[in-house]
Amino acid sequence: MKKISIGIIGKGNIGSEVYHKSQSNGWIVNWIAGSKGIFSDLSEKTKIAELKNYEQHLQGLDGIFLAIPTLDNGEAGFHYIKSSLNANVPVVTCEKGALSNYFLELEEAIKNQQIGYSATVGGGSRLLRYLQERIGPQVQEIHAVVNGTLNYIFEGLSNGRSLGEVVEETKKLGYAEPGAKHPLEVIIKEAIGDVPMKASILFNICNLTNERMRTKDVKIETIEQNELKRLIKEATNRRYIVSITRDGNNEEDVIWGFKHKIDDWHISAGFKHVEDNPLFRNLIPSGVNNAILTSEGEFGKDGSYVLIGPGAGPGPTASSMIIDAKKIMHL
Ligand SMILES: NC(=O)c1ccc[n+]([C@@H]2O[C@H](COP(=O)([O-])OP(=O)(O)OC[C@H]3O[C@@H](n4cnc5c(N)ncnc54)[C@H](OP(=O)(O)O)[C@@H]3O)[C@@H](O)[C@H]2O)c1
After folding, report:
1. Which of 137, 154, 156, 308 is most buried per CB count within 10 Å?
2. pTM of the shown model
3. Mean predicted confidence (pLDDT) in 213-234
4. How far apart are CA 309 and CA 104, in angstroms?
5. Residue 61 confidence (pLDDT) above 80
6. How buried is 27 (Cβ within 10 angstroms: 0-12 exposed, 13-18 middle, 19+ buried)?
7. Cβ pair 255, 189 in contact under 8 A
8. Looking at the predicted structure, is the pLDDT value of residue 177 above 90?
């Protein structure tokens, strides 16, 4: 049987978990790269090459895993994906910037199953695959909780825990987006940095229109201090929800977030009131889980359907990436 050889870009929470899971599958990890260079293993004892020379190390690989933070509009991720595809090496990514800003440019490779992207939204829940199967002209509304960290924080606040305590826990468990330190910084980074990218990917994979959403086109207001105070006070009844609907709802009870329109479709997100839409009752997951709900038929007469699963954390995310890898490497 042919031995599978892979490379991993990013050696943090997710990259190191992918490293271990790849080895458990009997795959050879040829190298793992971080910002300091390309190394033979996680220990960084043996440096193979400078990071800028990684293209020379793609030859002969069966796949690349990409697990770097998004520190730009996805250019770094896009560049890694393009160069891997140019070398005929398929890519599995959990980095959201590339797909949320360059979906159109990558769409052909996505259709040809050269890119695995299930972990970009919904962590380990495989929510994107589920949505792709459900989508059709009967779907009138889609609502989603796609940020497990915010859901975890707001559930913790509802249970009487302090913001500082619950945010510290999300960081220890590896749920929070890399980089943020202060509790409010974590909330802002998740809501501004993470969710608009996930909303774009959600919208784009649904193929509802010919136009694609780019996160960099979405206008997001900065949150005011008084809104933040209200948010913490009302935490019990607030969850960060993304909605994709045919009718825009201007009457929504929402704190912060964004609204974006593409053709007939309205994409909105924010800390919505859980009683604002009866469908939200079935949507809100517990803990760090993510959820997606589709409402089908006129006024939902054909029912609503929900998928809930683990939305963040190195274990579920890396597992989902391994499933993608097996598919795109035809194993
Ligand atoms: N944590 C989760 O539950 C979760 C779930 C789904 C998706 N994600 C996504 O997974 C990605 C990684 O998250 P993480 O928690 O693993 O982050 P992390 O722990 O901060 O690790 C990031 C790694 O990427 C490396 N890196 C940064 N910029 C790079 C570049 N330009 N080229 C090569 N390597 C680079 C860093 O190198 P150094 O170590 O040398 O600094 C580090 O090893 C993010 O895009 C995140 O949104 C995370």
Report:
1. 154
2. 0.95
3. 89
4. 28
5. yes
6. buried
7. no
8. no
> Do residues 270 and 257 lie in contact, with contact meaning Cβ atoms separated by under 8 Å?
yes
CATH of the domain spanning 5-123+315-328, picked from 3.40.50.720, 3.20.20.150, 1.25.40.20, 3.30.70.120: 3.40.50.720
Tens-digit pLDDT profile for residues 131-160:
999 999 999 999 999 999 999 999 999 999
Report whether CATH 3.40.50.300 matches the domain 127-311: no
Pocket test for ligand 1, best of 18, 64, 94 (most atoms within 8 A of CB): 94
The residues, ordered by sequence, that sit 6+ positions from 306 with a Cβ below 8 Å of its Cβ are 282, 283, 291, 292, 293
CA atoms lying within 13 Å on the CB side of residue 202: 33
Q: Where are the alpha helices (DSSP H) in the chain?
A: 13-24, 75-86, 97-101, 103-111, 127-134, 148-158, 163-172, 183-188, 195-206, 225-233, 280-283, 314-328
**Which residues make up the CATH 3.30.360.10 domain(s) of the chain?**
127-311
What's residue 134's pLDDT?
A: 96
Which atom of ligand 1 is found nearest the CA of 35?
Answer: 40
Indicate whether residue 300 lines ligand 1 (CB < 6 A).
no
Determine the residue of 44, 65, 68 to mutate for testing ligand 1's pocket, defined as the one with the most ligand atoms within 8 A of the Cβ atom: 68
Which residue ranges does the chain devote to CATH 3.40.50.720? 5-123+315-328
Helix extents (H) in 56-96: 75-86
- Please report, rounded to a whole number, the percentage of residues in the chain having pLDDT higher than 90: 85
